[in-house]
Amino acid sequence: KTEFLLAKQHETERKSEYKKQCGKDIFEASIEELPSLRDCRAQVFYNSSWYRDMQQRYAVDIKLENYGGVETEVFTPLDGIFPKNRDKVLINLHFGGFAYHAKQESRLESMPIAALMRIKVVSPDYRLYPEHRYPSAVSDVLSVYRTLLKTYRPENIGIYG
Q1: Which three-class secondary structure state does DSSP give residue 59?
Q2: b vs e for 122-155, b when ≥16 Cβ sit within 10 Å of the residue's Cβ?
Q3: How confident is the model over 9-23, as pLDDT tens digits?
Q4: Is residue 100 scored above 60 in pLDDT?
Q5: Predicted TM-score (pTM) of this structure
Q6: How many Å apart are CA 118 and CA 50, to the nearest integer?
Q7: Higher pLDDT residue, 134 or 86?
Q8: More reliable by pLDDT, 72 or 31
Q9: Burial of residue 75 (number of CB atoms within 10 Å: 0-12, 13-18, 19+)
Q10: Who contacts 42 (Cβ-Cβ below 8 Å, separation ≥6)?
């Protein structure tokens, strides 16, 4: 199977498990239900075959760090950062429309990039909607960016997601 087909298969399995184990979709939940629903989805994700497969395929070190008051996951390849990338960093703004997924999606997007490109990737765990309204997530991302500017030149900071 191609990587794409494998990813689609795992995504389908994960969505099915989310529904089975957690019940509601994230957009059906009340604000009061969101924390426990997000916790349930995180547990389903971290116990999934897809995540275990990703850990095997993309060897990275994952550390939690505080960047400008924002909890941020930092991904570095176990094979080391490629010499040409030592002065570069990528910021991953994870999938989820600033409303859901958080660290789970961050890992799916950050692990392959860090491992294959051999570059440092940071992924802010920005505040999510609807508990936090605009511009909360944007402010969090800017705090991370400003912190990175203390170590990296602006032209060496990339953003994706």
Answers
A1: coil
A2: bbbbbbbeeeeeeeebeebbebbbebbeeebeee
A3: 777 777 788 888 888
A4: no
A5: 0.84
A6: 22
A7: 86
A8: 72
A9: buried
A10: 102, 103, 104
